[in-house]
Amino acid sequence: MTLTTQQRNELRERMQREIDGLEESIARLEQGLNPVAPDAAIGRLSRLDTMLNQGINQSSLSQSRTRLVRLQHALKRIDDPDFGTCAECGEAIPIARLLALPECDCCVECAE
Ligand SMILES: [Zn+2]
């Protein structure tokens, strides 16, 4: 056991907050992702703009979704005795790294 109960609780809270925030921004991004209406009134250029913005939204959306899944996964594992140890080398991951990137299951060395 590398983490104290207090550290685990802190991490759990942190992850829950991040998950809530991600779910919120995913919902917002999804609302901005309505199909571009083939409406001549908005004009060709602004239609192109809209499509470009949607491309950007689409990629932050998929990034947010990936992070959300990883965080949810990490949150489920937080009570495992080996949570907080590197999946590659088995060394303890520093609490500062866990707090900054709770979804990571590798130490800095192995992540590189
Ligand atoms: Zn490692």
Give the tags.
112 residues
Description of the structure:
- There is one protein chain.
- The two termini are 25 Å apart.
- The chain has helices at residues 5-31, 43-77, 95-100, 108-111.
- Helix 1 (5-31) packs antiparallel against helix 2 (43-77).
- It is built from four helices and no strands.
- 64% of the residues lie in helices and 0% in strands.
- It has 112 residues and is mainly α.
- The chain has one domain (5-83).
- The mean pLDDT is 87.
- The structure holds zinc ion.
- Zinc ion (ZN) is lined by residues 86, 88-89, 91, 106-107, 109-110.
- InterPro entries: Znf_DskA_TraR.
- It holds the Pfam family zf-dskA_traR.
- Residues 5-32 form a coiled coil.
- This is TraR/DksA family transcriptional regulator.
Q: How is this structure best summarized?
A:
The chain has four helices and no strands. The protein is an all-alpha fold and 112 residues long. The protein is elongated.
Map the helices and strands:
Blueprint: H1 5-31, H2 43-77, H3 95-100, H4 108-111
The structure holds zinc ion.
